[in-house]
Design goal:
By secondary structure, the protein is α/β, with parallel strands linked by helices. The chain has 13 helices and twelve strands.
């Protein structure tokens, strides 16, 4: 029996989203920019889908632009946000624990003359309001901070930071990578206070290849992809209607059941914590607020070996962000975790489809792996 516990990397597509994608591919397959009947059908679907996703995010439909993924949204917000504000300064605030889509965008900006302050997180991976204010300068033009850390599950209080920036009279644009937060941690764009918000479909049971960027009304961000006039002239390229329709359906379902889903994942996360600590006393676990991410470590054993032993029992976890492909976790280094603990770190990712049986299998599997390795 399969026990998939890598939902922070990606989630399986829910049946309703798959059906929506299929319908868009086989029935409502017109180009939304075409003016004939099939085009108008597709445009109606596009408008309805935008309304559904924007409703889940808590913004106006006109503030939401569909992208190919969360990484594109991050790149667009950071690179073009900095370009928009460069006449006011070249200082940017971010953190040492951001996703590579943010980190590497900042690297590009540094190489072209911008100055980036990367804040040190707390011991779980969150960024404090005070650290942001201490780094704030008159020439700070952009702040980019992840809402939920994708490796530890630490939650940064984006609303509080936004309020602090406003109170300080900062001119800076505020971007948050909310890919791991969307539909997992309650928030609404209209009162969050961020100017730019990145989200992604494949983290909430929609297909891969679809994301969105919230752009606050009135903010004129230069297009990241040039060409046609799609997305109200903000992102060229024919809209990926199957993915967009599926994203909308996944948002509708996740939004309707969000409270129950969060409670379910929190219960399973606590069950995993309690069971693992009881069976493996030396285990290290980071207790963070996100309901779906649990970072653990078994110092002395290598993550890859543990993962391989679990995989033989059809238990699937990861050692850090799936995007890193073998590199040591910069997040765990930044929070001060010891080298042997980093080398034995595993990330458990939950979803609404996760079960108690999955958690029991994980506990048993890790205990057996530990005992097997101890006798080698």
């Amino acid at each position: 029996m399969e026990h998939y516990l890598d939902n922070a990397a990606t989630t399986k597509v829910c049946p309703e989203a798959a059906e929506a994608a299929l319908k868009a591919m086989t029935e409502l397959y017109g180009n939304p920019s075409s003016t004939h009947t099939k085009g108008r059908e597709a445009k109606k679907l596009l408008d309805a889908s935008r309304k559904a996703v924007s409703s889940a995010l808590g913004c106006m439909p006109g503030e939401l632009v569909f992208t190919s993924c969360g990484s594109e949204s991050d790149n667009w917000a950071i690179l073009n946000g900095a370009e928009l504000m460069k006449r006011r300064g070249k200082h940017i605030i971010s953190s040492a624990v951001e996703h590579d889509a943010v980190r590497k965008s900042l690297d590009l900006l540094e190489a072209s003359g911008y100055e980036v302050t990367r804040l040190t997180p707390d011991e779980k991976g969150a960024i404090s309001v005070s650290s942001v204010l201490n780094a704030l300068r008159d020439d700070t033009i952009l702040v980019s901070l992840m809402m939920v850390n994708n490796e530890t599950g630490a939650v940064t209080d984006i609303h509080a930071i936004s309020q602090a920036l406003k109170k300080a009279g900062s001119q800076a644009l505020f971007h948050t990578d909310a890919v791991q937060a969307f539909m997992k941690v309650p928030f609404k764009a209209k009162n969050l206070g961020a100017d730019l918000i990145s989200i992604s479909g494949h983290k909430i049971h929609a297909p891969k290849g679809i994301g969105a960027l919230y752009i606050r009304n009135g903010l004129r961000l230069k297009p990241f992809i040039s060409g046609g006039s799609q997305e109200d002239g903000r992102r060229a390229g024919t809209e990926a209607m199957p993915q967009i329709a599926a994203f909308a359906k996944a948002c509708e379902i996740a939004s309707a059941g969000m409270d129950d889903n969060i409670a379910h994942m929190k219960t399973l996360k606590q069950h995993a914590l309690d069971g693992l600590r009881a069976e493996i006393p030396e285990l290290i676990a980071l207790e963070t607020d996100a309901p779906h991410i649990l970072s653990i470590s078994m110092p002395g054993w290598r993550s890859e070996v543990l993962m391989n032993l679990l995989e033989t029992k059809e238990i699937y976890v990861s050692k850090s962000s799936a995007c890193k492909k073998g590199g040591r976790s910069h997040v765990l280094e930044a929070i001060g975790m010891k080298s042997d603990a980093i080398d034995g770190a595993l990330r458990i990712g939950l979803s609404r489809y996760s079960t108690e049986e999955d958690i029991s299998a994980l506990i048993t599997g890790l205990l057996e792996a530990r005992n097997t390795l101890a006798h080698r």
